[in-house]
Amino acid sequence: MTEERTVEPLLEPREGIPPVVADEAGLAEVVERFGAGSGPVAVDAERASGYRYGNRAYLVQLRRAGSGTALIDPVGCPDLSALDAAVSGTEIVLHAASQDLPCLMEVGFRPREMFDTELAGRLLGYERVGLGTMVETVLGLRLEKGHSAADWSTRPLPEDWLRYAALDVEVLVELRDVLHQELTDSGKLEWAREEFAAVLHTPPPAPRSDPWRRTSGIHKVRSVRALAIVRELWTMRDRIARESDLAPGRVLPDAAIVTAALEGPRTKKALTEISAFTGRSARRHMSDWLDAVGKARGLPDSQLPQPSTPGDGPPPPNRWADRDPAAAKRLAAARAVVAALSEEHHMPTENLLQPDAVRRLTWEPPAEITDESVTDRLGELGARHWQIALAAHPIAKALARLETREV
């Protein structure tokens, strides 16, 4: 692990703040410049989560040796496929890649080879893996992180935001180089490569069948008629949010949906007496909210939602002891193995082996517990080769020992 060093503030990009590229001519110049550069390409993206509907990119930052730094406005330049082609075959360096890859792919930038500095930090056992902390711990430089939650759909973008954005990629390749060496020295480089490839090739999650069930506070809603109100208000809010390009919570907070479901207001006056409906955006759509509540009230019983929908996996672990005590013992034994391996290899348990894989393996174990059957099952559940090599045998041994005791 890198020894402690004096921390210096990183206040300005080396070549200054580059202009924001927002037209085809400017993009063509960036494509030529980055195609002629050398070495890995540092990439970051800024979104407007919590402000706009969806998670599209509103700024893309890149840096490469010999190319300098570029700031690209994907609103003005919505197709970055030419840039993608110019650096094809080059390693792309990202921090917390799973957050940025979807919005980068939306604009045609699709890395084929990647290094994720956050994921590398996890595998190496760093306790805190945010970009600012990693840069400070590993490189001895302090990044200001004051604008990470800003509304990046703002135009024009303030100069201090652009400075922050440029600095996010300023030393990302240098951070990558140190972590690459640490991975090599610790024998974890191939593990990291498997993890990076898994992130790159993981398909986007399928849309949820009932996304309205994730409304915060829905656990308070007990009757199916009230659940129907949640569903109809959520659906109405989602339509309005999409059409207005606003984050759904800015149109109507979840608390308003749940309170309306519990109180069942029948008039606009009753709606306005719910404090969460007093926001400007919520007041603008009072008729829509009342229509949604009325629709839920008028549904026949056959069209009311069920209290819950069965999942495709095991129940929550806190219910295992009652539902299947033997499975609960298997889960505890497997978790103990993973915890011991995580401590031995200095990384979080969730990185050593995915918790969902542990749950599914122990809820429905192979008919015969052997190294081979556990290996096969973990592979089916998406565990990486390095994870299986570490965990399959000790987990199989622990589960087999439990079976022997029960016999």
Task: Summarize, please.
By secondary structure, the chain is α/β, with parallel strands linked by helices.
Give an overview of the whole structure:
This protein is α/β, with parallel strands linked by helices and 407 residues long. The chain has 20 helices and 8 strands. The protein folds into 3 domains: 8-201, Nucleotidyltransferase, domain 5 (2-Layer Sandwich), CATH 3.30.420; 211-303, DNA polymerase, domain 1, CATH 1.10.150.80; 317-406, DNA polymerase, domain 1 (Orthogonal Bundle). Helices cover 52% and strands 9% of the residues. Strands 2-5-4-3-6-7 form a 6-stranded mixed β-sheet, with helices on both faces. It has a two-stranded parallel ribbon with strand order 1-8.
Descriptive key words:
RNase_D-like; single chain; flat; 9% strand; two-stranded parallel sheet; DNA polymerase, domain 1; 20 helices; 407 residues; HRDC_dom; six-stranded mixed sheet; Nucleotidyltransferase, domain 5; 52% helix
**Fraction of residues in helices?**
40-55%
Low-confidence stretches: none
Taking all residues together, what is the mean pLDDT? 95
Total count of domains: 3
State the shape: flat
Let me know the number of strands: 8
Q: Would you identify the CATH H-level superfamily of the largest domain?
A: Ribonuclease H-like superfamily/Ribonuclease H
- Biggest sheet character: 6 strands, mixed
Could you say which structural class the secondary elements and strand pairing correspond to?
alpha/beta
Strand order of the largest sheet: 2-5-4-3-6-7
Write down the CATH topology of the largest domain. Answer: Nucleotidyltransferase, domain 5
* Overall radius of gyration: 25 Å
Strand content: 5-15%
The appropriate CATH architecture of the largest domain is 2-Layer Sandwich
Number of helices: 20
- What pattern of helices and strands is seen along the backbone? EEHEEEHEHEHHEHHHHHHHHHHHHHHH
First and last CA, distance: 47 Å
CATH class designation of the largest domain: Alpha Beta
Pfam family, one: DNA_pol_A_exo1
Protein name: Ribonuclease D
Region (Disordered): 296-323
Organism: Nonomuraea rosea
